Protein 1
Amino acid sequence: MVRIVYRGYRQILALLLATAVILAGLTSPVGYKAEASGYFHPTVVRGFNTSAFGDLKRAKEVFGANVFRLQLTPRTEAVRSGVPITIAWQRQLEYMEGALQEAARQGMYVIVDLHEPPLADPNLKTNTDDFWNNDVNGQLLVDSWKEIVQRFAPYRNNIWGYDLLNEPYNKSEPPIGNEKWPVWAQQITDAIRMYDKNTPIIYEASPGALPRGFVENKMIDAGPGYPVKWQGDFPLLRDDKVIYSLHMYNPFAYSHQGLSTVNKAPVSTDWPDKAAYPGMINGTYWDKNKLIQDLQEVRDFQLKYNVPIYVGEFSAIRWAPGAAEYIRDLIEIFEEYGWSWTFHAYKEWHGWDPEYNEVMTSDANRDSAKAAEPTDRELVLKAYFSRNEFLVPNGEPSPPPNLVLNGTFEKDFNNDGLADRWGKDANAVAALVDINGSKAQKISTPSNQRGLDQAYFAVSDQNRYRLSAKIRVISGKIIFQHKDFDSNTGFLANGPVVSGLTNTGGDFVTKTLEFVPAPRTAKMSVGIWTEMPSEFIVDDVELIDLGAAVPVNPPKTVADVVYPGHLEFRAAAYDGAAVARTEYRIVGRSGGWSTVPNGGLTLNPPGNYIVAYRSVDTFGHTERAKSLLVDALAPTTTASLSPVQPDGRNGWYVHPVTVTLASYDNLSGVAATVYSLNGGTNWRPYSRPVSFTKDGRSSFTYRSTDRAGNIEVSNTIGIQLDATAPAIAVSSPVLGDHPDAGNLTVQFAVTDNLSGVDDSKTAATLDGKAVGQGTAIPLHALPLGTHILAISATDLAGNTGSSTVTFRTVTSISALKDLVTRFAQEGFIDNAGIAGDLQQMLDHNSLSSFVNEVQAQSGKHISSEVAACLLRDARFLMNQQ
């Protein structure tokens, strides 16, 4: 994102959501839905989004960044330098190549970001129908990437990814993504793969790399006054190495606040759209939970397709209240999800620069906001950059760079005789001449005036510089010097001068100046001026930064986490000094620096801290502050059970139970999770879900330890498993034949050794009719034949058991005699003589006479019920004969 975008970004987003051309219900273009491979997991990188092509070494040494997302901005270059787009494009590629060479030397990564296409028409905007509806522009993107990929082939080990196009969107298509972008992106990808099969492709979601670009199969509502549209399947690229990218500035009203106010006063303490984080912003409360919610669609997309995510830009303007906490919350989310990220921005507009303080200052007054102490934003970044890993450096350490561009005069892209990057007076005549096979710049002036110069170079008034050039004066007299300017390009002073240089006799002479710029100098120009009509040739102009004018070797401090939450520091001083003190401060807390206590620093209460630290020596030299993440908070482990709740009664499980543990630590990470089945006496490593299949009461204790050594307080859950039904023992009746002259007493016992018997649910039936425990049943009352006693019982866990006993009631002559005796004794046969006659008939096996007599006396001296029983048995026996 370039500065011109920052100021108009609010209006741009309004346009982004203004009108629509894709019909509701339209999904992604046919053929552009693909399945991700799921195995591609690039190295996690953390660094800066920037256009500072020459600052990789400093960003690594000062901050610990391992990647630069470097912006190719040919249109901005053309406007800034007043050159055609073709020249501007080549300049940008030169910058990128130099940065890639330095990345190799530093073991860093570069993301090649096509921030602006090299469009010949300066009025054509990439957010319009005129751009997107012309396939010539798609071909321009393809051709640009072909050139990039082939030119940078030697540096592919250090290219983390090709970022195809910055924030693609068409302002006539919101709120959903640009219909043409997936098509063009696939064409670009296919073209890249013709030359480079392995370097990852970075695909920014449309519209504008906003998080909502990852929404799938939902209606997109951008708010009141905007259309509501259907966004279908996300158009995955057909390639095995794609990193999907977003930019995160939500809520925009917070991250970009004050832009309409910043240049209205040198310093501002209030502005109309001032908003704090966390807090209410445009009617919504924003905190870390809200940020998580805002990024949830991206997270869901990542998990669904198992693809890497990269946050190419995120930030909050430096004067936004709570900016450091906002940035920290976002980074914590990115880290938890395993996303790579580049912070916006390093050494660009001061509003985004973490090395400027939190006071709103105008552009003209920005120098006053240079932070005297490291900002919390800087320290938050440094703490997370400390996790970075680097490539093995490749190549010799780079020599001090020549700040002068094209100082050998070899490049003249427009062939006008004036070497690229250089300027001259309008009436001076320029020509490039060959000197021993290389180019040199020849200048002729008609008077005392500006001859040849170049501006501006970023310099420091604390450093020493060497300016040199080879000069051949043919005629006249020249001055070779530099001029010093402040950060707003206000002239400060002329620097040391080589003046009065006249005819050098046809030879080149080398002139060298060493100097420290004037106080407050931030920019510099170098050049040759003439004191009269003159003609000269110049070659090999160099401006070299020699380092600090007064070398300072501050102390160096190493922090050791001795045990969780406790830090000890080791510091060394140099050049005869001693360490006066080592200081620390907790980022995010009010208050300044404190001296580290004797014995080290213990952090309380438990938590995750960013600790900044530095040392001061006895000469007063203060080390540049460093910071680190300190994990003083134990991990958390959650247990989930299947079934989730007891599937029995009274807290009992009646089926096997599986316990699954999930451990989380958002800083150092979980080192181990263990569990115990005996209250912590013996611990077992947890590697897979633990199942309980045996009945009983069990305790399951668990805990985790993180990589910092923090041990979680043990948690215990109780599991009651009773999967066994109650035991039923029937003592009466027993299996077999039972003469129907006797009685049967129902006798059974129900036992359960775990949950216990639920007596209210114990039931017994005889041939389907309820009977009770201890019930005496006269067997003659039952039909002859088979009978079933069924008993069911339930325990307090809800398990139900049953038992059945099958028996038969039988009769015989002997049984009939017993029945006659029983019925006579019970008064159902009220005449002893009749009873005696019946016994004699049975003694003589005279069943027919027995039947006749019973029938004759039924209802008279023999009750009808008893008569029916005697007749049933007699006839049964007769049928058996």
Note: The first strand starts at residue 46 and ends at 50.
Protein 2
Amino acid sequence: MFIYQDEVKAALLGEINKHLRSEVSIDPKNIDLTIIKTFPDCSMEFKNVLMMEALKIKKRDTLLFAEQLNLHFDISDLWHKKYDIKKITLQNAIAKPGLTKAGKPNYIFWEESKEESDKNDSISFKLDLIQLKNCRMIYRDKQKIFKTDLLIKDLNFKGDFSATEYDMTSEGKVFINQIAQSKKTFLKNKNCNLDVILQVKGSNYLFEKASLSLNSMLFNLNGNFIYADSLQKVNVNYEASKLDITTILSLLPEDQQQKTNEYKSDGDFYAKGNFVYNDKKDFKWTSEFGIKNGEITYKPTSTTAQNVNIDGKLNYSSTSSQLDLTNVHLKINNDELKGKFSLSDFSNPFIHFVVDANVNLENLQNFWPIDTLTKLRGNLKINSEVGGLLSDLKSETFSNKVKLDLDASITNLEAQFKNDETIFTVESCSVIAKEREVEVKNLKLKRGSSDISLNAKIPGIFNYLSDKTAPLIITGNLFSNYLKLEDFMMKYKASEDKTAPLIPKNIQFKLNAAIAKFSYAKFEAQSITGEIEIKDQKAIVSDMKLSTMEGEAEIDAYADNSGSKLDVILQSTLKNINISNMFSQFNNFGQSTLQEKNLKGFATATVEFSGSWSNALDPDMSSIRSNIDLAINRGELIDFKPLLSLSKFVDIQDLQKIKFSSLKSVVEIKNKTIYLPSTSLKNSALNIIFWGSHTFDNAIDYHIELLISELLAKKRKQKADEEFGPIENDPDNKRSAFILMTGTVDKPIIKYDRKGLKENIKKDLKEEKQNLKQLLKEELGLFKKDSVSIKKKEKAEQNFELEKTNNNTPKKTLEPKKKKEDDEDF
């Protein structure tokens, strides 16, 4: 062997190089002459062979890489020095044949020589066997965006390949990784077995015997094809009978197979057809297929569809395409479903189908479970016909381009969604679609303790059911005896995107609502009427009227969720609202300073409000603006912490429970601060005038003027001047003390309010000045041109006497001490 090795290598390599059109790389150390491993043949073995594409370009990809390639010949050829290659084996290889975008093949690497001298070459190919083991072939047609990815486990081709006419047999096992066109996958992860005998006459191949097993489905073929460098013509008939339905379903893509694995079938499934191909622009595929007396069982529930019958026809050519399913019929228990379906023009599909069914939804759920539901019961009767382009069915279902007739009714429906403990029940409902309009009549829905009656028109409902991004449009009338919002708040997973909009982009509805009773959390309302409209992620509540908290309310509101937040504008009129109930039902508005236990009375108010929230309902406190024109009658302020801070100056009993007949004020909220104008709180024991601000962080800046009655003054006459600092002399024999309260609600800082006193003195001086002018004008005729006047007093009050001379030194009036700072701690 060693004697002939170099000679055989030189002869083989020299001959191969004469015919190669492709660059081949191999280390000489990886070329061996073997006989023991291939006995009785002798073989030239090549290891780690790399062959580049047979293209005249600079950047070429790999055409073939093989861990082992063997060229077999008779051992006697060593003595004759003429080597006839009769067998080729290829193992552990990857091949990448294909066509470029210009349609040029990259795999024509062998060039036959036409020179006469070649007849005396020392090497020739008289192949009768080609063996492939564990070879992956990836074929790409870049022009048509077509890809085939195969793993050839074991495949043999036998025949006298050097002859022009011969019989070729082929048998083997192939695993189809993928066959795809553009982004559409036809087959993926399928086993295929071949057993073929071809009669070869030049470039014409005639099937003498051909059986193809695809995922255990057996197809028999007959016909012929012409192949010369590429496929020229095909005319093949195929037939398959007694196929298993589950096996048919296994041909579906993997993402659609999960459910089909849970079914088993029985019955006759048949398919036969013909495929003709003349060139890329002239082909035709016709097929007939169907199911006779079939049974399909869903294994987890042992629910069986019986009497399954379908007749199908397919016509697909370079000029037209049509799929028809007729005589569709099946029974599930005593429920019956029948219909027909057709699809034409696969490039722009036109769909037409008719469905007639009367089914128990529990049977249907047991046969084909809906993943989002844990319970489905009730009866559905439906008769429908739909026709139109698929593109129009998706986007313009209710345009004049689509035919849609539907008559359906549901009774005694019970539905329960996963992760939801509450059941939806529908006592009755009918749905009619005619002339592109869908109408829901007498929908009576119950969930928890809530009930809803709805009559509405819902264009686009079928689009929405098939595509959650499609618009859902509802217009109509809604009535409810009791609507508890919690009943309709589904439980969502914690991982759900909290930045998602609160008002979906595709929801549009306009409802006239009448709700006898409504509740959410602690809030309750009765006799609600109004109009609610949602469109383009904006909600409008118009002329809503309701009875709540022992009073009445009228609301107009606007919410915009089209951006990354929720903007709200609200106008409301409240009449005789029980304040304690209001604070209780709204959880004290999220603050702890003034709570339901601190306040009683009945409020009438006009409210203007605006603010923003994130989609996770986190408020933007700086965005909140409000103006509230407030009036409180029959009021009572109980244990209000800021007032209790004045217990040093006023009897604690008077501060713990302050009753007042009325209070009026205009409250403004902005910049995270509540602003109170000068507001008077009066009762028989204690009169208070206060104004100031209170931030959302409970920082306070209150100015308080205490008007202490004679009774209170007598109680604390001796200490009044000391405790209150400078006290204003009151002409009505009352005293006013000015207090500044800062700090926080929990830790207030109380000081003498010089600024408040000064402002009050200026006010009093101005009033006295006007009074004096009026008096001189009336008595002496002065300041007649002065337009300023005050209300005339009763005649008895206008008499006055000149004060007699008094030599006694006048008492020194009480004045504030001069200090650098206006405020002084008590």
Note: The first strand starts at residue 24 and ends at 25.
